[in-house]
């Protein structure tokens, strides 16, 4: 279940308002982050159809296997339960709720096989993607949602400190990665110069740079934080690159404010790195939205002119990657406000250097 502080009625109201404006008659969502957002239920998607049907001005309807109905009723949901038996066609049951010539938006992460069966069961319906509604609604985090992300950040920052303390000379990446528990990236030396390198058999050595990227979840809401660790005294260029990345992150965070185009945040960080001659080595966007998913709207690349909105929670994660040598990335999670921003994760005050 989602956090008790979630206002599902307000979310349903926001969806209904969007549907009326868009001319949609219904939205259909199966188990997914959007389903959690709209229903508060975290259900497993299987071969048995589960779908919530939303219509403006109507109580939502939940189509699900009959043996799951009692569990759904026990959740005290303000929804009409529409159970189907094992010998029923659940897609026909769902299609029967849509109307013969309706415009229906389907949750965008619905598997094609599931969508195709629903489409076949409702030949008179015009189907569209619901992403314009779900993506926009989920961007504006409530105070409760932001607090869940803040709590997840606290867990991650504390765990990153523990992970740094567990690193030992000769330890292989894959063994160190097993200590992440919830998953993530653990990159030593040359691997740290590849932004999404999988943990391998690289052994930790003196003068290595270590990049650790990991996340935690609280009430379904995720953090996403990266730290760079230096093994032994860093050389002059390592110090310089770390300081450039840190200044780039400072510049990007300072640029964050509701109404500012997402691409401007990327450019704020990139200009610092380019001015120092490392432009070709910053190879990815500066960040992305987080919430129920670790990657969600908005996406902070230079071509995105969509304005930030108050309530967005985004990552700011500039990096410099020197091929075959090492890389540096620093990532923190930032809440967009009307007047600026609030960093939800505790930022590094100085370089982390391990002495063995």
Can you put this structure into words, describing what you see?
The strands form 6 sheets. This protein has a 6-stranded mixed β-sheet with strand order 4-3-2-1-5-6. Strands 7-8-11-19 form a 4-stranded mixed β-sheet. It has about 350 residues and is an alpha+beta fold. The two termini are about 45 Å apart. The protein has helices at about 10-20, 35-40, 70-75, 90-95, 110-120, 130-140, 145-165, 175, 235-255, 260-275; strands spanning about 25-30, 50-55, 60-65, 80-85, 105, 125-130, 185-190, 210-215, 215-220, 220, 225-230, 285-290, 295-300, 315, 320, 325-330, 330-335, 340-345, 350-355.
Strand order, sheet with most strands: 4-3-2-1-5-6
On the 0 to 100 scale, the average pLDDT is 94
* Apparent shape: elongated
Low-confidence stretches: none
Task: Give the number of DSSP strands.
Answer: 19
Largest sheet: 6 strands, mixed
Structural class of the secondary structure composition?
Answer: alpha+beta
Q: What is the radius of gyration?
A: 23 Å
Question: H/E order of the elements?
Answer: HEHEEHEHEHEHHHEEEEEHHEEEEEEEE
Helicity range: 25-40%
Q: Helical element count?
A: 10
**How much of the polypeptide forms β-strand, as a percent range?**
15-25%
Tell me the span between the first and last alpha carbons.
45 Å
What does this entry show, briefly?
The chain is of the alpha+beta class and 356 residues long.
List the helices and strands and how they pair.
Elements (H helix, E strand, L loop, with lengths): L7 H15 L3 E4 L3 H7 L11 E4 L6 E5 L3 H6 L5 E5 L5 H6 L7 E4 L5 H10 L4 E4 L1 H9 L3 H24 L6 H5 L6 E5 L20 E6 L2 E2 L2 E2 L2 E7 L4 H20 L6 H14 L11 E3 L6 E5 L12 E4 L2 E4 L3 E4 L2 E5 L4 E3 L8 E3 L2
Parallel strand pairs: 1-5, 3-4, 5-6, 11-19
Antiparallel strand pairs: 1-2, 2-3, 7-8, 8-11, 9-10, 12-13, 14-17, 15-16, 17-18
Helix pairs in contact: 9-10
């Amino acid at each position: 279940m989602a956090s008790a502080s979630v206002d599902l009625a307000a979310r349903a109201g926001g969806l209904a308002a969007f549907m009326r404006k868009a001319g949609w008659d219904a939205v259909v969502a199966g188990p997914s982050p959007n389903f959690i957002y709209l229903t508060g239920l975290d259900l497993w998607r299987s071969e048995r159809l589960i779908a919530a049907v939303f219509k403006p001005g109507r109580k939502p309807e939940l189509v699900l296997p009959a043996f799951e109905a009692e569990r759904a009723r026990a959740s005290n949901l303000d929804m009409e339960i529409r159970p189907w038996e094992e010998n029923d066609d659940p897609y026909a049951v769902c299609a029967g709720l849509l109307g013969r010539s309706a415009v229906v938006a389907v949750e965008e992460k619905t598997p094609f096989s599931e969508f195709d069966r629903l489409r076949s069961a409702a030949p008179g319906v015009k189907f569209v993607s619901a992403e314009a509604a779900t993506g926009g609604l989920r961007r504006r985090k409530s105070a409760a949602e932001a607090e869940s992300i803040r709590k997840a950040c606290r867990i991650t920052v504390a765990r990153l400190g523990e992970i740094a303390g567990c690193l030992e000379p000769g330890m292989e990446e894959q063994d160190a990665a097993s200590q992440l528990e919830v998953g993530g990236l653990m990159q030593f030396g040359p691997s740290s110069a590849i932004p999404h390198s999988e943990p391998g058999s690289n052994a930790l050595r003196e003068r290595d740079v270590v990049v650790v990227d990991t996340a935690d979840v609280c009430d379904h809401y995720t953090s996403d934080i990266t730290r760079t660790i230096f093994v032994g005294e860093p050389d002059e260029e390592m110090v310089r690159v770390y300081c450039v990345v840190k200044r780039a992150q400072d510049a990007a965070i300072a640029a964050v404010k509701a109404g500012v185009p997402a691409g401007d945040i990327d450019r704020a960080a990139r200009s610092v790195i380019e001015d120092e001659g490392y432009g070709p080595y910053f190879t990815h966007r500066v960040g992305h939205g987080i919430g129920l998913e670790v990657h969600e709207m908005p996406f902070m690349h230079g071509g995105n002119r969509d304005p930030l909105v108050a309530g967005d929670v985004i990552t700011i994660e500039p990096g410099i990657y020197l091929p075959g040598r090492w890389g540096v990335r620093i990532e923190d999670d930032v809440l967009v406000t009307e007047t600026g921003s609030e960093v939800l994760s505790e930022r590094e005050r100085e370089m982390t250097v391990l002495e063995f």
